[in-house]
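@channel sequence for tomorrow's demo:
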Amino acid sequence: MQMFITIILLVVGFVLLIKGADFFVDGSSSLAREFHIPGLVIGMTIVAMGTSLPELSVSVTSSIAGHNQLAVSNVIGSNIFNLMVVLGASAVFSTLSVSKSVIKKDLPFSIFAALLIVLIGLTTGKVNRIWGIVFLAFFAFFIWSMIHRTMTSRKTAAEKAEDEELDQDFRIMPLWLTIIYIVGGIIAIKFGGDLVVDSSEKIARAMGVSETLIGLTIVACGTSLPELATSIVAAKKNELDMAVGNAVGSNIFNLLAILGVAAVITPVAISIENIIDAVVLIVFSFVVWLFCFKSKAIKKPAGFAMIAMYVSYLVYICIRK
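structure tokens (generated this afternoon):
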């Protein structure tokens, strides 16, 4: 009976995730159209931070409880999932065009953040409170650069005409309804993610799967389900900039903001396994960057390849642990 209830809660969690992502994308798209904000910027800020609520909750709670290594494992594991599965699965549904700013600035910045984790791990072995403040400062700089980029960008007449045509086809909701959609979507995503993670963990334990493996797979993948749901929905709704911006923005938010907050609360230790996983994240990031650099897009074959690489990584951590 208990297992039946757990399965029901798992299904409810998935429904909340999917519908929450649907509402969240619609609300964010309407907000972007209303204030003429590029979808990429919305994806990298509001959407990215909203879908990273589960990671923030897990990492901060772990830090307060003194289990701060989980904060690093959760963030790095979630980032690898975001990069390879979220973008890969979205590309399978629809070819993801990638803007020059993502290729030249945002992806390299996310690689820099991961490299920072490796360097700190190899030198001091922990992210102390000072480094936590530095991380938060870097994140503030990233947000400022996104806003500055939007304020100073100039579109061609053809791009403006295309935007106006899209705006006419897209129903812009009243601001109050847009806020309800965004806030309601975040709430549904948050609680949906919690239900999926908790239910999956109970099912895994009932099947005799180790807690270490649960932490590396279910917690990291489960907390990234909002990004997966949101990006796939965005890709299907042809909000391709938002799909890419959500994944890349979430990775930067996870590494700098979430680890920064966790480290300010309690210094976060970085293990050898964390360093190895961070190196894997950097390698995967370079692979995705090469895909984007070559064709300015992530196409279906690349999407399948990215998912296959993630499966290989899962096999590796299962053998390692």
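heads up for whoever presents: The domain at 2-320 is CATH 1.20.1420.30 (A middle domain of Talin 1).
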